[in-house]
Amino acid sequence: MLVVASLLVYGSLYLTPGGPLSFLVGNRSASPEVIASITAQYHLDDPFVVRYFAWMSDVLHGDLGRSLVYREAVTDLIASRLLTTFLLVSYATALIIVVGVGAGVVSAIRGGWAGRLVSTGSILFLATPAFVLGVVLILVFANGLGWFPVFGPGEGVIGRLWHLTLPAIALAMASAAYLARITRSAMVGELGREHVETAVSRGISQRSIIRRHVLRNASIPIVTVIGLTIGGLVAASVVVENVFALDGLGSLLVRAILQRDFAVVQAVVLLLVIVFVVVNLIVDLLYTVLDPRISLGGDS
Amino acid sequence: MTLHRNALIVGAVALSAALAACGGSGSSTPSSSATSTGGSVEFVSTTPAATGDIEAVSWNLPYEPTSIDPAYSFNYAENTVDANLCESLLRLNPDFSITPALAESFSHPTPTTWVYKLRQGVTFWDGSPMTAADVVFSLKRGADPDVGSYFGTYFANVKDIVATDSSTVTVTLNGPDALFNQAMSTAAGAIVQEAYTNSAGKDFGSPSKGVMCTGPFKFDSWKSGDRLVVTRNSAYWDAALRAKAATLTFRFISDETTAVNALRSGEIDGEFFYLPPAGINELKNSDTGTLYLGKSLVFWALVGASETGPYADPKVREGFSLAIDRPAVAKVVFQDTASPAKSLTDPAYFSYGAEVFQKAYDALPANNANFEEAKKLIAEAGGTSAGITIGVQGSSAVHEQTGSLLKAAGDALGVPVTIKTIPVDQYGAVYSDPKAREGLDAFLTTWYGNVPDPLDVYGLFTKGGFNNFNNYTAVDSAVAEARAIDDPAARAAKVADIMTQVTRDSPWTPLEVLPVLAYMNNKVTGATVSSAYLYYPWAAGLGKAG
């Protein structure tokens, strides 16, 4: 799976119109020296298979190439941004799960005003773009109340968590709203099932019913959505990174695409693919835990 | 009860719908407080002197520098940093006068030689002395086509650079060149250490290696994407410019709104804006800081980019120029921080031959909007249904708003205008690469002469000149002649004529004169705010206020 993905990532350079050299040179005029150095860096004179294996072995040795724009090793560029993005995405994921599942469960069980509040709230947050939310958060909580800093990723564990709180909220709310609605409808679906009715008529406590009969069964779609959401968070983080001046992988990727800095694009995309594959693997494993009827490699 | 609750929900939804609907770019609140100046605003060169030293200052750059190698420092962020690190043979002062720096004196014994006597006792940050060999090495870098210095055109007439003794360097030219010595006060004449530059190789000027120079601040560290830190050089030779700040940290917030918020909250102490950000009124009205308008050589222009197409016709260009209400642009688009321009070089450039230039300048047409005349010119040009494409930079309210005005002007004149928004990360390529300009008839830009000599601006209009985007050649020989006239008084007359002709033909249409917009938190003061900040160590005087 990873091998196929890496082939696609590497091969995409050669699918560009005009061939790899014209793409890499792109917006820039190229003197013969520049052309020679690009040809050497990307081994453009060798056959495809040789080039692919050269790249793969470089990657496995930790050499991701050199950025044409920053004139630095790509590994250095990524390393300094990896922590920021990792913390931001993890923090946002935690918020999405806690707020999303929590709100969904509460609105499914309680109904009434709580249900309406969550419904309305989720519409509001689904419709609000992340950068608008980010700017509002800055105006109210950073400039206004002064509880949080305006920009930057911060230093040290506490510092970073403090700096990343507003960005994580801005990033998380739309996905949390979506998860809340999914959770709510999955729960409501389960609450209507016969075995739940049976359990209620048998007098089992509501807490126990929710935990063992409803939530467990509703969790398949919930876990699926969480997995897909995490996959998309790095890309979604670009806008939030811009508003809060966090230099993370998302901004690096967008800038590199615009500037035709292909070694950087290749490396970041490969990293994203790996993350996505790992997250989906975890989700698949969770399925087997949550539903004994599903087994790895089975035909569910 | 139910009615109230539902009403509340509906109200909340309506409010949030309004919020969700504002997904557009930051809106600029119209300037209600600023008095409309109509005429000229007083621009300053310096700010009140600091009262004492300060431990740490943070300063924001509009984008992260691509390099701090002086040979490649030819743009706002790069020079903002580099001016405090690397010094040149001569110094361009805040008032645009030129005085000796690393060269303690210079002489011009023949029309084609310049002799620089080097200052003794100057050391690089690592303690080693600055030698004539380092000076020769640095100047030769500027002239070397393999290095490809962005200041290369200033070295076009250099024949030879030699250390005539251990403290003297002589530059021999192929012919007299009025711009060469002046350029030695900019980063073109920056002196770097030969040994360090050679050992750093292609990493020189990058985050890993930085530079090795002689300035009042020394390079400390550069974490790409995060910050660039410079610290006071305690062994600096010029006591008058000893750095008052122990540590100066540069940040790279490129989003205008975030930068303005960071300045207002005090998390960043200052910034130079080369175009007014959307939130400029918040900065003007802020109680925690002050906005200064600095005397400047920078101007806002619509630059012709193609040798073919409707815009290549001078009548069409003049027509467009007459359809633009410059005072309105200054008031609305620039929110009262610009003033209408009648030529590319306004009086700030007249450092020599002032009377001659002023007379020619006063004789230029006023450039007031004249719509009838504009329509007449377009008709004379043959009318045109063929449209023109104008490039503007993304992420900039000023670019986009000026673009909209040009489109409206075009619509009214019957010339369809397409505005092409080019992302800010790609805009640099428009200047350096003909391929990036393909399809563009014109684009908007700020521009500036490096030295206070109108020839530095008009000198780009040579045949095949790198920056002569639409290959306007009418003044090509006049420019070559003028550049060879060493005597300022004699040169003034010739350059004034060039100014008149270029203004008439308008290959580049001057729109506004742009002051430097310098914001400083009230706890610091002392920065230089004229556009000399690009080459003068503007942060040396930056220290504690009050």
Helix and strand content put the structural class of chain B at alpha+beta
The outline of chain A comes out as globular
Alpha-carbon distance between the two ends of chain B? 59 Å
User: How many distinct helices of chain A?
Assistant: 12
Tell me how many strands of chain B there are.
Answer: 19
**Roughly how much helix do the residues of chain B carry, as a percent range?**
25-40%
Mean pLDDT of chain A: 81
Number of domains of chain A: 2
Structural class of chain A: mainly alpha
How would a textbook summarize the main sheet of chain B?
11 strands, mixed
Question: Using only CA atoms, what is the Rg of chain A?
Answer: 24 Å
Main beta sheet strand tally, sense and closure of chain A: none
Weakly predicted, low-confidence segments of chain A: none
Query: Any idea what the shape of chain B is?
Result: globular
User: What oligomeric state is this?
Assistant: heterodimer
Q: Name the largest protein-protein interface in this structure.
A: A-B, 45 and 46 residues
CATH architecture designation of the largest domain in chain A: Orthogonal Bundle
Description:
- The complex is a heterodimer of chains A (300) and B (546).
- With 300 residues, chain A is mainly alpha-helical.
- Helix content of chain A is 77%, strand content 0%.
- Chain A contains 12 helices and no strands.
- In chain A, helix 5 (74-110) packs parallel to helix 12.
- Chain A is globular.
- The two termini of chain A are 20 Å apart.
- Mean pLDDT of chain B is 89; it is low at 15-40.
- Chain B is an alpha+beta fold.
- Chain B is built from 16 helices and 19 strands.
- In chain B, the strands form 4 sheets. In chain B, strands 1, 8, 9, 10, 11, 12, 13, 14, 15, 16 and 17 form an 11-stranded mixed sheet that branches.
- The longest helix of chain B is centred in the N-terminal third of the chain and has 20 residues, at 2-21.
- Chains A and B meet through helix 5, helix 6, helix 7 and helix 11 of A and helix 1, helix 6 and helix 13 of B.
